[in-house]
């Protein structure tokens, strides 16, 4: 699995630098009309970008408080939090990363939001008639997936398929590993790949793609939750945003509209 590991080290370093620049260049002060002069900092999985952009826009309009957000692969976000000791909130694509963060005393509270399910993404119309797991192993199918060491979807996929004894098969059929679920979808949309495993909700913003459900991924589901970073010095404000994202009627509506599985 060296081809997967090679992706990880440099990405974390670049990510931490980007976060530092975000704080350095954007400043600590906002307009006088804000409820608090300091913006919140959210680390958010790339799979939630579309819905979170909308939620942050609504939140800022309603409560006049800015939220800075850094998107990326879940493992990269977790590593950045551990290294930088900055930020207020962490929203990975799978709550297993929050469990790791809690074990490392990086996160305190967490609030469940919604579910995402792993599916096989293909181009609209499914030109290669992919309908089952075995089709992904065909010589004429260019299959890509996200790195298990960096992205939640890769980690969840590897875990599910390993339990079924199918991981070695799909690993051998994979022509390339990507650092995030969005990069997998981008490859298929651009025509540089024919199929890849993504979260169903991610495809909401890819009108030229569709998905196929295969039995081997039936249990490959991720719980999306938001956690409060232990070192935050804006505890009350962080809790307010976390409650807004996890339980407000507006947030639940947005998550449903963007293809997430929101349970009552």
UniProtKB/TrEMBL annotation:
<feature type="binding site">
    <location>
        <position position="181"/>
    </location>
    <ligand>
        <name>molybdate</name>
    </ligand>
</feature>
<dbReference type="GO" id="GO:0046872">
    <property type="term" value="F:metal ion binding"/>
</dbReference>
<dbReference type="InterPro" id="IPR050682">
    <property type="entry name" value="ModA/WtpA"/>
</dbReference>
<protein>
    <submittedName>
        <fullName>Molybdenum ABC transporter, periplasmic molybdate-binding protein</fullName>
    </submittedName>
</protein>
<comment type="similarity">
    <text>Belongs to the bacterial solute-binding protein ModA family.</text>
</comment>
<dbReference type="Pfam" id="PF13531">
    <property type="entry name" value="SBP_bac_11"/>
</dbReference>
<dbReference type="InterPro" id="IPR005950">
    <property type="entry name" value="ModA"/>
</dbReference>
<keyword id="KW-0732">Signal</keyword>
<feature type="binding site">
    <location>
        <position position="47"/>
    </location>
    <ligand>
        <name>molybdate</name>
    </ligand>
</feature>
<feature type="binding site">
    <location>
        <position position="199"/>
    </location>
    <ligand>
        <name>molybdate</name>
    </ligand>
</feature>
<keyword id="KW-0479">Metal-binding</keyword>
<dbReference type="GO" id="GO:0015689">
    <property type="term" value="P:molybdate ion transport"/>
</dbReference>
<dbReference type="GO" id="GO:0030973">
    <property type="term" value="F:molybdate ion binding"/>
</dbReference>
<keyword id="KW-0500">Molybdenum</keyword>
<feature type="binding site">
    <location>
        <position position="74"/>
    </location>
    <ligand>
        <name>molybdate</name>
    </ligand>
</feature>
């Amino acid at each position: 699995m060296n081809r997967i590991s090679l992706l990880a080290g440099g990405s974390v370093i670049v990510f931490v630098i980007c976060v530092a620049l975000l704080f350095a260049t954007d400043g600590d002060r906002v307009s006088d009309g804000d409820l608090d002069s300091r913006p919140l900092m959210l680390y958010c999985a790339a799979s939630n970008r579309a819905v979170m952009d909308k939620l942050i826009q609504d939140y800022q309009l309603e409560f006049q408080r800015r939220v800075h957000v850094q998107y990326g692969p879940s493992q990269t976000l977790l590593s950045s939090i551990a290294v930088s000791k900055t930020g207020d909130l962490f929203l990975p694509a799978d709550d297993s990363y929050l469990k790791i963060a809690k074990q490392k005393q990086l996160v305190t509270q967490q609030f469940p939001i919604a579910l995402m399910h792993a599916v096989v993404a293909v181009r609209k119309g499914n030109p290669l008639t992919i309908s089952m797991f075995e089709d992904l192993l065909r010589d004429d199918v260019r299959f890509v997936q996200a790195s298990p060491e960096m992205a939640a979807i890769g980690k969840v996929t590897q875990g599910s398929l390993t339990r079924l004894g199918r991981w070695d098969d799909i690993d051998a059929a994979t022509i390339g590993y990507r650092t995030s679920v969005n990069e997998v979808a981008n490859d298929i949309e651009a025509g540089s790949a024919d199929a890849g495993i993504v979260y169903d909700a991610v495809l909401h913003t890819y009108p030229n793609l569709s998905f196929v459900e295969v039995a081997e991924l039936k249990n490959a589901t991720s719980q999306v939750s938001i956690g409060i970073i232990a070192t935050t010095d804006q505890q009350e404000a962080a809790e307010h945003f976390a409650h807004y994202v996890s339980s407000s009627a507006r947030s639940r509506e947005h998550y449903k509209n963007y293809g997430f599985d929101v349970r009552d």
